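Dear colleagues,

I hope this message finds you well. In preparation for our joint manuscript, I am sending the NodB homology domain-containing protein (Xylanimonas allomyrinae) sequence together with its predicted structure, so that both groups work from identical material. I would be grateful if you could confirm receipt.
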Amino acid sequence: MRVRRVHVIGAAVAATLVVGAPLVVDTVMDDRPVVGLRLEGASRWQVWTDASGTAARRAQDRAADTLTLRAGTLTRTPTLDDLGLVDGTRDLRTALLAAGRDGSAWQDALAQTRAAWGGERVTPPPDRLDPARLSVAVDAIADDVAVPPVDATLTLSGDVVRVRDDVPGIRLDTPGARRAIADAVRAGRRSAHLPTRAVPAAVTEHDLAAVEASVHAAVARPLVLGAGDARVTVPRARVFAALPVTVSGGTAVVVPDAAALAPEIAEVSAQAERLPALRIVMAGTVVAPGADGVHVDAQAAAEAVLAELRARTAGGGADVVPLPVTTLPAPVQEATAGAFAGDHAVHLTFDDGPGAHTEAILDVLAAKGAHATFYVLGERAREHPETVRRILAEGHRLGNHTTTHPDLTTLAPEQAASEIASTQALLTEITGVRPTAFRPPYGAVNDAVRAAAAAEHLSVDLWTLDTQDWRGPGAAAVCERVLSGAQPGSVVLLHVLRQGTVDALPGIIDGLRARGLAVD
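The corresponding structure tokens are as follows:
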């Protein structure tokens, strides 16, 4: 009986020690968690011996965890630290120290007893995200998610104008995305779907439907720009480009833009424009009819094109748009008899040498046994004295064409006289022969010019047939102009400036001789 009593007492003492010892330790060492407390991811020994280190390691591991985010077709996997996770070390350490010590004495005793037997577990405090850092992270995701809308537009496919549909854009619902991320982190989920919103296009298919037919009708018809005799057909794509559409408040309006057709306006203007040709009258008889010039005013032309584009979008308009032109009257020059009076040959005269193609022209004349008159410039004669001497040596006439080719009628009388006199002196110095013929540049002559020429004993020579070869029309055109216009006594104006003149010369000489006309 005594032995049994001893065993019971021993068991009671042992139980008291087993249960009571941890309680005593927990009471004495209150700067540590209660003995045996459990925390996921850490041993009970780590929790009891190093609460701060355990909490710090757990916070670091949590910050490195990732959260898979999906928004539309985009997937991103940032860490929780990237999303602004607040360091939970302090909160977890506080929770570890408070477990088993935050109730009544009886409740704490029970909790500490459970902990000692491994039955007490600490749940970490909920994760928190820093709002400012979370906003930065979500804004970065929003930039990647964003797809701008594509406005509806009119397109030209072949001959048909169609509406290309609008395509809505996509944007991230940033407030909703922040909530979704915060909820997923608090709940410990590994992924979250972020909400997106459609972004409507500023211009929709419905907006453009009202103008589609009118633009198509305006483009489908041919558009020809006319100025005088010139014509330029505008390609449909260019007409379409000149009919942009603007949309305001859902209403589409065609706003014609004539500037878009500036290249075509410039092209037809270049074809139509023509400088007036000098009309020469001698003793009351028109010896060179000349021709009026044509000018196209760019502003007036643009206004005419704009009016046509507006008319087309309203269902009217014309296929050919006449651009306004201005006639430039031909200047009239009264001529003196000059060096060719009373002669019935056709006289070929060449201005603006020497240099350029002068030598080649002399070669052709030599090969054909023909002669001509060369009106030379002083500044070029100074550079090519050998060519000047060759002109005289091969039996051609040498004429004065001033020093620098100015319009003498625009100069003071003394300046005009100097242009003539200085060239006269230079040619005399080069050749030893004083010229007797003079042709004023542009055929421009007045009383002061005539007086200056008379002072140098020079005739004032103009022409009766202007080939316009300086424009470079080509050999065939130059030859045809001479052969169709030459008469006995004609004075033909040519220049040494173009290869086309050289190429035309053999045909001119042969053609004139075939008509029984002498060439001199």
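For the figure legend, we might mention the following. The chain has 18 helices and 24 strands. The two ends are 169 Å apart (CA to CA).

With kind regards,
E.M.
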